[in-house]
Specification:
The complex is a heterodimer.
Chain A lengths: L3 E2 L8 H17 L7 H24 L8 E11 L2 E9 L1 H24 L6 H20 L3 H19 L6 H32 L4 H7 L5 H19 L6 H5 L5 H10 L4 H8 L1 H5 L2 H24 L3 H21 L2 H31 L17 H15 L5 H15 L2 H30 L16 H22 L3 H10 L12 H24 L12 H7 L4 H47 L6 H23 L1
Parallel strand pairs in A: 1-2
Antiparallel strand pairs in A: 2-3
Helix pairs in contact in A: 1-2, 1-4, 2-3, 2-4, 3-4, 3-10, 3-15, 3-19, 4-5, 5-6, 5-10, 6-8, 8-11, 8-13, 10-15, 11-14, 13-14, 13-18, 13-22, 14-15, 14-17, 14-18, 15-16, 15-17, 15-19, 15-20, 16-18, 16-19, 17-18, 17-19, 18-21
Chain B lengths: L1 H19 L3 H26 L3 H31 L13
The chains are: A mainly alpha, B mainly alpha.
Chain lengths: ~625, ~100
């Protein structure tokens, strides 16, 4: 990858990270004094970032395609012997796509938060954390080496922890934050080991250095690095087997769920895999594992989404599932990278829109999250209904909404992989599309249609313009983003210098037109199934007992139970064993020695009677003994 | 040779006195007796071996004994003043 020094507006991209970071510092250090204008400052920085991002993007479009990657050297961070890490930013089509998504959707969600958090006394702190997140996320995507990426990676983890636990007075929120942090640590461990292996094997951690050296590395090493990177991606992106934290993460305020746990942070894993494409390209085994993880997660997430009555948890299951699609696409290699990122961008729009819609409904219903308590809301909340509806059409993949273009491509690419694995992965993706249609239809029907099942003190009302505005913009994105990105393979060509030219595969397992029709049929089938179940019958306010499968899905397919029995319990046994060994074994030995010496000394002490004559006697005998011994030796 | 035997007898008397008697003054005198028994032995051995080393040592012992008497008597006086007793068994506070 050949890159030249950035110039013009692009040399200002460091401001993207510096501005929100400075704003977060001001808001956190300034304390209550900044309460009055804190949220305005918080909104200004991502908007400014978006401006810089657009300017940099326009400048990039002016360059010829193969010269679009620009680096910006900031400063020398670590220089110890043979180990040199320079902090630098890498601006290429991939990172600029992320910059636009993060600052664009981020700005909208910041603005929405002004309204959503208006009743919260800690709104300033909320904006400080959001800005911290924006800064860390931008560092993650702009870094030109793995170590700086890791700093951003940890930064978003911290921001996620702080924001999930924002209402830390609720025990459930505090626990969820801790859980998210601990589960993420497992993934971060994988990423950090991957970086160490890279440094150990190649002696460099910069992207260009690693990708240059990886060509000559042994296959086993490359596979190991790939799998470790996948572990990191699984943690951050809530993929199997580290998926359990995302559902609990919905304890955070809804804008957080929209920004961090739907649009941006959880997609960092996809970014990591696509960015590390040259590593995965050399290891088909690692790629296959990536694809399998993605396919499994997309089904698991979708199944969980079907059974949740909590609107946010339903959307969280859906997020898992959609990221599963992206990981699956990324696992298909160079042909899939562009589609993974495209689905990531369109998903950023429609899922953020859906979450903001859910937040708007919750805001209106006194923070009620149980969909069995909604119903008939389309009359009272028309704006929310329409924007949510466009998000809905986009996510289930009805043409010409954006999800159709990105998801359909992924299903097609999976089938085209060829061989048995191609058929299985493709079938999983196709089935996932049907389930997606089912649970999303269920969600819309339960929330906006049917009779009103509100609790007595609910007086729903449309949200203020400051919340509706971002929802409308995101809905527009949900409608048009896919079409704009797909026309003439535009986005693929844009990303090609980074992820590699996707070969025009002449072999189609199924002809694209037929496959599109099949996908549409499956989607409509899923929608009709949901309509039969939830649209034509009344929805009971109390959830029915449900079949075995429903119960399993309600319990997140026993994800927590498996973790508990496989990892937590043995871990507890291990700690108990070590505690026992420590207290009885090590401490026991030490204590016994000490007690023996102490007891003996206590008795010996009694010899000190204080009587001068007994001392004299012992001295006398002692001297006699010494003289006797001397004489004996001499004789 | 007889002087050596006398010295041994004197030393034994002194040692027994230190071990058996309670009066601090008497114990003190017995210590002096032991020292002088040792002096006697030194002088006798010097005579027997025909050089002056033992006699010189005897002088040193006398100097030490004089110093010891000064310190020891002062201690005994102080104890007697505070406790109205010169028994060594009464001065037994420094113990376990």
């Amino acid at each position: 990858m050949h890159a030249t020094q950035a110039e013009g507006v692009q040399s200002l991209v460091w401001l993207l990270i510096a501005l929100p970071l400075a704003s977060a510092a001001v808001l956190l250090v300034g304390g209550r004094r900044t309460d009055k204008w804190g949220h305005l400052l918080g909104c200004a920085t991502p908007l400014a970032g978006f401006g810089i991002g657009v300017a940099a993007f326009v400048q990039m479009l002016g360059y010829p395609a193969e010269e679009r990657a620009r680096t910006l050297h900031l400063y020398e961070w670590i220089a110890v012997g043979g180990f040199n890490v320079d902090v630098g930013l890498l601006l290429d089509p991939l990172s600029v796509s992320f910059v636009l998504l993060i600052t664009g959707v981020g700005s909208l969600i910041h603005i929405y938060s002004i309204g959503y958090m208006s009743h919260d006394t800690d709104r300033r702190r909320f904006f400080a954390y959001l800005n911290l997140f924006i800064a860390a996320m931008l560092l993650l995507v702009l870094a030109d080496n793995y170590l700086a990426l890791y700093v951003g990676w940890e930064g978003v983890g911290l921001a996620s922890y702080l924001l999930i636990g924002f209402w830390q007075f609720k025990p459930s929120a505090a626990v969820a934050a801790k859980k998210a942090f601990v589960v993420n640590r497992v993934g971060d461990f994988g990423l950090s080991v991957a970086i160490m292996v890279m440094f150990g094997a190649f002696g460099v951690v910069s992207f260009t250095g690693v990708f240059g050296a990886v060509e000559g590395a042994s296959k086993g090493l490359v596979t190991a690095v790939g799998l470790l990177l996948l572990l990191g991606a699984c943690g951050k992106s809530a993929q199997l087997p580290l998926q359990t934290w995302l559902l609990d993460a919905m304890e955070g305020p809804t804008p957080v769920s929209a920004l961090i746990h739907a649009a941006t942070m959880v997609t960092a894993g996809v970014y990591l895999i696509v960015r590390s494409g040259p590593i995965f390209d050399l290891s088909p085994d690692a790629r296959l594992v990536v694809a399998i993880v993605g396919a499994a997660t997309l089904l698991v997430g979708a199944i969980i989404g079907c059974a949740k009555d909590d609107i946010k948890k339903g959307l969280a299951g859906s997020t898992m599932s959609q990221i599963g699609y992206m990981i699956l696409a990324a696992g298909l290699g160079p042909v899939g990278y562009a589609f993974a990122i495209m689905h990531l961008l369109t998903h950023g729009f429609f899922k953020a829109g859906l979450f903001l819609g859910a937040g708007s409904v919750m805001h209106a219903m006194n923070d009620e999250v149980d969909m069995r308590r909604y119903g008939g809301l389309y009359r009272v909340m028309p704006w929310t209904f329409v924007t949510f509806g466009f998000g809905y059409l986009a996510i289930i993949g009805i043409p010409p909404f954006s999800g159709f273009f990105s998801k359909d491509k992924i299903i097609e690419t999976a089938f085209n992989k060829g061989g048995t694995s191609g058929w299985i992965l493709g079938a999983c993706a196709l089935l996932g599309a049907g389930i997606t249609a089912y649970y999303m239809t269920r969600m819309v029907l339960m929330t906006f249609f049917g009779e009103r099942r509100w609790s007595d003190d609910a007086h729903p009302h449309e949200s203020p313009p400051v919340m509706v505005g971002p929802m409308v913009l995101l809905a527009l994105g949900s409608i048009f983003a896919g079409l704009l990105l797909t026309l003439g393979g535009r986005f693929q060509d844009f990303l090609a210098p980074v992820v590699g030219e996707s070969p025009e595969h002449g072999v189609h397992a199924i002809s694209p037109v037929v496959l599109t029709l099949i996908t549409l049929l499956v989607v409509i089938g899923g929608g009709i199934a949901a309509y039969v179940q939830y649209g034509r019958r009344t929805v009971p306010v109390v959830a029915p007992a449900g079949s075995f499968a429903t119960v399993a899905a309600r319990k997140d397919l026993y994800g927590d139970a498996i973790n508990e029995s496989l990892i937590m319990r043995p871990g507890q046994w291990l700690t108990r064993l070590t505690v026992f060994f420590d207290s009885r074994g090590v401490d026991g030995l030490v204590n016994t020695v000490a007690a023996t010496i102490g007891g003996t000394s206590g008795r010996v002490r009694r010899l000190q009677t204080g009587f001068v004559r007994s001392y004299a006697l012992s001295m006398f005998f002692g001297a006699a003994l010494v003289i006797g011994a001397l004489l004996l030796v001499r004789l | 040779m007889n002087y050596v035997i006398l010295s041994a007898i004197l030393f034994t008397i002194g040692a027994l006195g230190v071990l058996i008697r309670r009066n601090a003054i008497v114990v003190f005198m017995c210590v002096e007796l032991m020292l002088n028994a040792a002096n006697l032995a030194f002088v006798s051995f010097a005579r027997m071996s025909g050089n002056l080393d033992g006699q010189v040592i005897a002088f040193f012992v006398m100097v030490v004994a004089a110093a010891e008497v000064v310190v020891g008597l002062a201690i005994i006086m102080t104890i007697f003043r505070s406790r109205r007793s010169s028994s060594v068994d009464d001065a037994n506070l420094l113990k376990y």
